[in-house]
Design a protein that fits this description.
The longest helix has 67 residues. The radius of gyration is 35 Å and the shape is rod-shaped. A 7-stranded mixed sheet has the order 2-1-3-7-6-5-4, with helices on both faces. Helix 2 runs antiparallel to helix 3, helix 6 packs parallel to helix 9 and helix 9 packs antiparallel against helix 10. It has a domain of 64 residues: Methane Monooxygenase Hydroxylase, Chain G, domain 1 (Up-down Bundle). The chain is of the alpha+beta class and 359 residues long. It is a multi-pass membrane protein. Belongs to the CorA metal ion transporter (MIT) (TC 1.A.35) family.
Length: 359
């Protein structure tokens, strides 16, 4: 298998203090970061994946955290061989399009999470996506954690910075990173659901506002995006429960309580998403009823005007037959009388329809 491009150099004698004045090497396009953490603190220097895990195992302390962004199969093979990642999990990490899940392969835990991002109202059209989704995979081992991200959003730079600012939490090991990632993802779920709640409130106010025209297409679009969010949230419930209940010894006991908090937040999101689906279904029914009512009103108006216009049309049609023996044809006031009858009939019908609120 080909080796990945090196992220830096280290002293090959494997002894003595680590040099801190290495010349930084350029980071590969798919390797976002590669770092060693010992006692909750980041070890200075640039590393490639092989040197990093070798140093951790030489010290018998700490762990490696590698962040990847949309690697190809060829690019991830070197890391997979070094860390002993299962080929099925590697295949899922490369090709993505997986549902949220938690699997254990020998001494490695593999977790898939769906990431979401809310598209601002000002930047989207009626046919664009409201909820943009991506994927995040996490490989968890005794002394390493590897995150693989798919999509242009949900970067983990802030998560890494927050954990590095809390050495006590980071000292709990790789499972603390898994918790930080899961907590970050679920927090974005909360943010997105709150934004969608505002959108649904606006739609609800518009639907039940008198004399407003409703675009049912926007409601259908919102319902489709809520279903997309639901596919990201609901399958994650069971994996989060398993992590909180001690599914694997690779999750430290101190970290399990934090996963219970994440599970509570996820349950809140699940309830909100479920209520969104029911509410949007109700709004669709209300919108269709309102559209039907508007169409009936329009048809009444059309029918009323047809009745008004048909009366003079009928009179004009009869006197346009040009029969020899017709009443009042020779009368001087026959023509103005016919016009007055037509006008009077139209005015009478207009008042009747107006009184009955057809016009």
């Amino acid at each position: 298998m080909p080796n990945l491009p090196s992220l830096g150099l280290r002293n090959r004698n494997g002894r003595g203090p680590l040099p801190t004045n290495r010349t930084p090497a350029p980071v590969s396009a798919y390797v976002v970061d590669c770092a060693i953490y010992v006692d909750g603190h980041r070890v200075e220097g640039s590393w490639n994946h092989a040197d990093a895990i070798e140093e951790v195992r030489r010290r018998s302390s700490g762990f490696v955290w590698i962040g990847l962004h949309e690697p190809t199969e060829k690019q991830i093979n070197g890391i997979a061989d070094t860390f002993g990642l299962h080929e099925l999990a590697v295949e899922d990490a490369v090709h993505a399009h997986q549902r949220p899940k938690l699997e254990r392969y020998d001494n490695t835990l593999f977790m898939v999470l769906k990431t979401v991002r809310y598209t601002d109202t000002e930047t989207r059209s009626t046919t664009s996506e409201i909820v943009d989704t991506g994927e995040l995979m996490v490989f968890l081992g005794r002394d390493f954690v590897i995150t693989v991200r798919h999509g242009k959003h949900a970067g983990l730079g802030d998560v890494r910075s927050q954990l590095e600012a809390d050495p006590e939490q980071l000292a709990l090991g790789p499972s603390a990173v898994l918790h930080g990632v899961a907590d970050h993802v679920v927090d974005t779920y909360l943010e997105v659901t709150e934004a969608i709640q505002d959108d649904i409130d606006e739609i609800e106010a518009e639907v039940f506002e008198p004399r407003t025209k409703i675009d049912a297409e926007q409601i259908y679009l919102m319902k489709r995006e809520v279903m997309e969010l639901r596919r990201a949230v609901l399958p994650l419930t069971k994996p989060m429960q398993r992590l909180a209940e001690g599914y694997t010894p690779m999750v430290a006991d101190e970290v399990r309580s934090y996963f219970r908090n994440v599970e509570d937040h996820l349950a809140k999101v699940s309830e909100m998403v479920g209520s969104f689906d029911e509410l949007l279904t109700t709004l669709v029914d209300a919108t269709l009823a309102k559209i039907t009512l508007q169409q009936n009103t329009d048809m009444r108006k059309i029918s009323a005007w047809v009745a008004i216009v048909s009366t003079p049309t009928m009179i004009a049609g009869i006197y346009g037959m040009n029969f020899t023996h017709m009443p009042e044809l020779e009368w001087t006031f026959g023509y103005p009388l016919a016009l007055m009858v037509m006008l009077g009939a139209c005015i009478t019908l207009f008042k009747i329809f107006r009184r009955n609120k057809w016009l």
